[in-house]
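Obj.: predict assembly geometry.
Materials: sequence records (below).
Method: joint structure prediction, all chains together.
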Amino acid sequence: DGGITQSPKYLFRKEGQNVTLSCEQNLNHDAMYWYRQDPGQGLRLIYYSQIVNDFQKGDIAEGYSVSREKKESFPLTVTSAQKNPTAFYLCATSGGYRVPQETQYFGPGTRLLVL
Amino acid sequence: AQKITQTQPGMFVQEKEAVTLDCTYDTSDQSYGLFWYKQPSSGEMIFLIYQGSYDEQNATEGRYSLNFQKARKSANLVISASQLGDSAMYFCAMRTTGANSKLTFGKGITLSVRP
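Observations (raw C-alpha coordinates):
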Protein backbone atom coordinates (compact mmCIF):
# COMPACT_ATOMS: atom_id res chain seq x y z
CA ASP A 1 0.00 0.00 0.00
CA GLY A 2 1.37 3.41 -0.95
CA GLY A 3 1.30 5.98 1.76
CA ILE A 4 2.89 8.11 4.40
CA THR A 5 3.63 6.77 7.85
CA GLN A 6 4.48 8.78 10.94
CA SER A 7 5.68 7.38 14.21
CA PRO A 8 5.10 7.39 17.02
CA LYS A 9 1.46 8.39 17.25
CA TYR A 10 2.07 9.96 20.68
CA LEU A 11 5.41 11.20 22.01
CA PHE A 12 6.30 12.54 25.43
CA ARG A 13 9.24 14.85 25.93
CA LYS A 14 10.98 15.73 29.16
CA GLU A 15 12.52 19.14 29.78
CA GLY A 16 15.84 19.56 28.00
CA GLN A 17 15.38 16.47 25.89
CA ASN A 18 15.64 16.20 22.11
CA VAL A 19 13.09 13.97 20.42
CA THR A 20 12.82 12.77 16.83
CA LEU A 21 9.61 12.28 14.87
CA SER A 22 9.70 9.84 11.99
CA CYS A 23 8.14 10.35 8.56
CA GLU A 24 8.44 7.70 5.86
CA GLN A 25 6.81 7.57 2.43
CA ASN A 26 6.66 5.04 -0.39
CA LEU A 27 4.84 7.28 -2.86
CA ASN A 28 8.10 8.13 -4.66
CA HIS A 29 7.37 11.82 -4.09
CA ASP A 30 10.31 14.21 -4.31
CA ALA A 31 9.14 16.84 -1.84
CA MET A 32 8.47 16.41 1.86
CA TYR A 33 7.22 18.85 4.48
CA TRP A 34 6.78 19.21 8.24
CA TYR A 35 3.94 21.23 9.72
CA ARG A 36 2.95 22.12 13.25
CA GLN A 37 -0.69 22.49 14.28
CA ASP A 38 -1.77 24.11 17.53
CA PRO A 39 -5.34 23.76 18.87
CA GLY A 40 -7.86 25.75 16.86
CA GLN A 41 -5.22 26.83 14.39
CA GLY A 42 -4.20 26.09 10.85
CA LEU A 43 -0.92 24.46 9.88
CA ARG A 44 2.39 26.26 10.01
CA LEU A 45 5.38 25.13 7.97
CA ILE A 46 8.49 24.11 9.91
CA TYR A 47 10.83 22.72 7.24
CA TYR A 48 10.58 21.36 3.74
CA SER A 49 12.76 19.43 1.34
CA GLN A 50 12.34 19.34 -2.40
CA ILE A 51 15.17 16.90 -3.07
CA VAL A 52 17.45 14.52 -1.20
CA ASN A 53 20.25 16.19 0.76
CA ASP A 54 18.59 19.59 0.57
CA PHE A 55 16.05 21.29 2.82
CA GLN A 56 14.75 24.77 3.54
CA LYS A 57 13.46 26.54 6.63
CA GLY A 58 9.78 27.26 6.79
CA ASP A 59 8.02 29.91 8.85
CA ILE A 60 8.75 28.50 12.31
CA ALA A 61 12.04 26.57 12.03
CA GLU A 62 13.61 27.77 15.29
CA GLY A 63 14.10 24.92 17.74
CA TYR A 64 13.73 22.23 15.07
CA SER A 65 16.12 20.37 12.79
CA VAL A 66 15.69 17.94 9.89
CA SER A 67 17.69 15.71 7.57
CA ARG A 68 16.94 14.24 4.16
CA GLU A 69 19.43 11.48 3.50
CA LYS A 70 16.97 9.28 1.65
CA LYS A 71 14.07 10.10 -0.64
CA GLU A 72 11.72 8.05 1.52
CA SER A 73 12.54 9.59 4.88
CA PHE A 74 12.39 13.08 6.42
CA PRO A 75 12.81 12.91 10.22
CA LEU A 76 12.13 15.97 12.38
CA THR A 77 14.04 16.58 15.61
CA VAL A 78 12.47 18.80 18.22
CA THR A 79 15.38 20.19 20.19
CA SER A 80 15.51 21.51 23.73
CA ALA A 81 15.66 25.00 22.21
CA GLN A 82 12.00 24.66 21.25
CA LYS A 83 10.37 26.05 24.40
CA ASN A 84 6.77 25.25 23.54
CA PRO A 85 6.82 21.99 21.60
CA THR A 86 3.39 20.66 22.62
CA ALA A 87 1.49 20.40 19.32
CA PHE A 88 0.29 18.06 16.59
CA TYR A 89 2.96 17.47 13.94
CA LEU A 90 2.05 16.54 10.40
CA CYS A 91 4.31 15.33 7.63
CA ALA A 92 3.32 15.77 3.98
CA THR A 93 4.65 14.89 0.55
CA SER A 94 4.11 16.12 -2.98
CA GLY A 95 5.43 15.59 -6.48
CA GLY A 96 3.72 12.48 -7.76
CA TYR A 97 2.14 11.93 -11.14
CA ARG A 98 -1.33 13.02 -10.12
CA VAL A 99 -2.32 16.49 -11.25
CA PRO A 100 -1.64 18.97 -9.84
CA GLN A 101 1.80 17.86 -8.75
CA GLU A 102 1.95 20.44 -5.99
CA THR A 103 -0.92 18.77 -4.12
CA GLN A 104 0.32 17.77 -0.69
CA TYR A 105 -0.69 14.48 0.91
CA PHE A 106 -0.46 14.07 4.65
CA GLY A 107 0.48 11.39 7.10
CA PRO A 108 -1.58 10.55 10.21
CA GLY A 109 0.39 12.88 12.49
CA THR A 110 2.30 12.69 15.77
CA ARG A 111 1.03 14.33 18.94
CA LEU A 112 3.89 15.65 21.08
CA LEU A 113 3.34 16.36 24.75
CA VAL A 114 5.77 17.82 27.27
CA LEU A 115 6.01 16.16 30.67
CA ALA B 1 2.55 37.76 1.44
CA GLN B 2 -0.19 35.21 1.00
CA LYS B 3 -3.14 35.09 3.38
CA ILE B 4 -6.14 32.80 3.73
CA THR B 5 -9.18 33.89 5.72
CA GLN B 6 -11.81 31.56 7.10
CA THR B 7 -14.05 33.47 9.49
CA GLN B 8 -17.20 31.40 9.83
CA PRO B 9 -17.92 30.13 13.32
CA GLY B 10 -18.80 26.48 13.70
CA MET B 11 -21.19 25.46 10.95
CA PHE B 12 -24.14 23.12 11.30
CA VAL B 13 -26.02 21.37 8.50
CA GLN B 14 -28.80 18.84 8.37
CA GLU B 15 -27.94 15.49 6.88
CA LYS B 16 -28.62 15.35 3.10
CA GLU B 17 -28.60 19.13 2.76
CA ALA B 18 -25.92 21.21 1.02
CA VAL B 19 -23.53 23.51 2.87
CA THR B 20 -21.08 26.20 1.77
CA LEU B 21 -17.83 26.84 3.62
CA ASP B 22 -16.31 30.25 2.94
CA CYS B 23 -12.71 31.05 2.06
CA THR B 24 -11.17 34.30 0.92
CA TYR B 25 -7.56 34.74 -0.04
CA ASP B 26 -5.09 37.49 -0.69
CA THR B 27 -2.13 37.35 -3.03
CA SER B 28 -0.44 39.59 -5.53
CA ASP B 29 0.60 36.62 -7.66
CA GLN B 30 -1.26 35.85 -10.86
CA SER B 31 -0.58 32.14 -10.78
CA TYR B 32 -1.68 30.18 -7.73
CA GLY B 33 -3.55 27.10 -6.62
CA LEU B 34 -6.32 26.76 -4.06
CA PHE B 35 -6.89 23.60 -2.03
CA TRP B 36 -9.42 22.32 0.44
CA TYR B 37 -8.58 19.72 3.05
CA LYS B 38 -10.73 17.84 5.54
CA GLN B 39 -9.43 17.00 9.01
CA PRO B 40 -11.59 14.52 10.95
CA SER B 41 -11.09 14.00 14.66
CA SER B 42 -8.37 11.42 13.93
CA GLY B 43 -6.15 14.30 12.80
CA GLU B 44 -5.12 13.26 9.30
CA MET B 45 -5.49 15.93 6.63
CA ILE B 46 -7.41 14.62 3.62
CA PHE B 47 -7.12 16.38 0.27
CA LEU B 48 -10.54 17.15 -1.20
CA ILE B 49 -10.32 19.46 -4.19
CA TYR B 50 -8.05 21.80 -6.14
CA GLN B 51 -8.65 24.93 -8.22
CA GLY B 52 -5.98 26.58 -10.35
CA SER B 53 -6.08 30.33 -10.78
CA TYR B 54 -6.27 29.98 -14.57
CA ASP B 55 -8.93 27.29 -14.55
CA GLU B 56 -12.05 28.61 -16.23
CA GLN B 57 -14.37 25.99 -14.82
CA ASN B 58 -15.14 25.50 -11.16
CA ALA B 59 -13.56 22.31 -9.85
CA THR B 60 -15.77 19.39 -8.86
CA GLU B 61 -14.93 16.11 -7.12
CA GLY B 62 -17.91 13.95 -6.35
CA ARG B 63 -20.01 15.76 -3.72
CA TYR B 64 -17.46 18.55 -3.44
CA SER B 65 -17.39 21.59 -5.67
CA LEU B 66 -15.44 24.79 -5.46
CA ASN B 67 -17.20 28.10 -6.11
CA PHE B 68 -14.27 30.11 -7.46
CA GLN B 69 -14.78 33.86 -7.83
CA LYS B 70 -11.43 35.26 -8.87
CA ALA B 71 -12.39 38.93 -8.84
CA ARG B 72 -13.67 38.58 -5.28
CA LYS B 73 -10.71 36.38 -4.31
CA SER B 74 -13.00 33.77 -2.88
CA ALA B 75 -12.89 29.99 -3.14
CA ASN B 76 -15.85 28.59 -1.27
CA LEU B 77 -16.31 24.84 -0.81
CA VAL B 78 -19.76 23.44 -1.46
CA ILE B 79 -20.63 20.03 -0.05
CA SER B 80 -23.80 18.56 -1.47
CA ALA B 81 -25.96 15.92 0.20
CA SER B 82 -24.15 16.14 3.54
CA GLN B 83 -23.39 12.90 5.36
CA LEU B 84 -22.66 12.30 9.03
CA GLY B 85 -19.09 11.42 8.07
CA ASP B 86 -18.61 14.96 6.75
CA SER B 87 -18.41 16.26 10.33
CA ALA B 88 -14.83 17.54 10.58
CA MET B 89 -12.60 20.60 10.37
CA TYR B 90 -12.17 22.00 6.86
CA PHE B 91 -9.11 23.98 5.81
CA CYS B 92 -8.64 26.19 2.80
CA ALA B 93 -5.07 26.59 1.56
CA MET B 94 -3.26 28.44 -1.19
CA ARG B 95 0.00 27.80 -2.96
CA THR B 96 1.66 30.19 -5.33
CA THR B 97 3.77 28.76 -8.13
CA GLY B 98 7.46 29.26 -8.58
CA ALA B 99 10.56 28.05 -6.79
CA ASN B 100 10.22 27.46 -3.06
CA SER B 101 6.54 28.40 -3.01
CA LYS B 102 4.69 27.28 0.09
CA LEU B 103 1.23 26.18 1.11
CA THR B 104 -0.52 28.74 3.32
CA PHE B 105 -3.44 27.50 5.42
CA GLY B 106 -6.45 29.23 6.91
CA LYS B 107 -7.49 28.57 10.50
CA GLY B 108 -10.23 26.17 9.48
CA ILE B 109 -13.98 25.81 9.92
CA THR B 110 -15.72 23.18 12.04
CA LEU B 111 -18.64 21.49 10.31
CA SER B 112 -21.15 19.40 12.22
CA VAL B 113 -23.74 17.35 10.36
CA ARG B 114 -26.97 16.73 12.26
CA PRO B 115 -28.94 13.51 11.70
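Conclusions so far: The first strand of chain B starts at residue 3 and ends at 5.
To do: check interface contacts against the pulldown list.
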